[in-house]
Request: fold
Amino acid sequence: MNLILIKPDERSTNASGDGAIIIDLSPNDERTQHLLNHLNKKNGDSVSIGFIDSYGGWKCKAIIQYCPNNTDNKNKNGIGVRLLPTSNEPSPSLKQSFSASLPQITLLLALPFPARLKYLWPVMASFTSVTRIIIVKSTLSNPEFLHSKALHPSTYDPLIVKGMSQGGRTRPISVDICVNEEEDETISRSLLVRLGLVATNDGISTNTTARIFFDCGADENDDTTPPLPPPARDLVLAECCCERRTMSDTDDDANSTSTTAAAAPSAILAIGPERGWTDNESNLFVNDCGFKSATLGSSILRVDTAVVSALSVVSAALEECQRMSNNNVAGEVDDRMKRKRSDSMERQRKELT
Reply:
C-alpha cells in the first residue's frame, strides 16, 4: 500500500465552514490498520494520499490525527484516524489535462483461468499506464470460465483499487467484460470496432498508438519454429516516438506551439489465452484491424507471466517515448529562442550602423 487511496464518497468538509477536506477512517479499515500497525504512524505524522475521481485524481500529503473522542494512543486497534490534506484540490480541467498527458495502455485479454484472472486484477492495475482492461472470449477459451466470479465487479473492483494503491496511482481504470454467456460472442472485427480498437486510415500523422498482438501459446502439432516478430519495445518505439508538439517558425512567441499537438503515446495490447490465438484470430487482428505482431522472446509463457512481461516492457517503452518527445520540444524551444536572440542582435547592429 504505497498510496492511501480515497474514494469520492469518503470525503467530507470541515464543519468550520472553511471548505477544507477531511477524511475519517474507521478503526477496522484496512488503511487505518496499515497506517498505525504497519507504518507505525503517530498523531501529527504525514502520509501520502491519493483521491480517485473521474478526472484523473490527484495526490498530496495529509496530516494524521487520531479521530476525536478516541485518543488512547496505546490501544491502536481501537483508534480511527482523520486525514487532513495539506494542499488544495486542483481544478477538474487541470486534472484532466495532466492525466491526458501521460502514456496510456489498453489491455485486451482473452479469458484466462479464473484463479489467474483474480491474481492479475491488482497486478494489471498497479501499472500506472493501464487505463482500460477488456476481457474477451477467444475461440480456445474454456466455456466453463464464463461463470467465474472473477468477472464480476464485486470481485475485481476492490482488487483494482488494491493494485492502484500498490502502484501509487489515481487515474481510474475502465473495465469492459465482453463475455456473454447467452450470446457466446467471440473475437470479431465488429466487436473490436465497437470497442474502438481498430486502426483507421484517416491520414492523421500525429497518431501515437501502437497496436500490438501477442500470442503466448503454441501449436502442439507444429514442429516448425516460425521466425519471431520484432521485440515489443522496438515496435512501440517505432509506432509512438514522434514529436508530440511542433514549433512554427512564424510564431511570435518563443514559447508558443502549433495547434497540431499529438496525443500522449499509447498502446493497445492483445494477449491470448493459455492455448494461444487461432490462425483466424491472428489474421483478424493483424490483417483486418491494424495490429502488429510482437514478441516477448522465444519462451512459451503462461498468461499471467505474459501479461506482466508485456506491461513492463510496453510501459517502459512508452515512458521512453514521452521523454524523447519532451526533450525534442525543449530543444526546439531552445533553438527558436537562440534564433530570436540572434535576429534581435542583428537588427540592433543594423540600427547602430
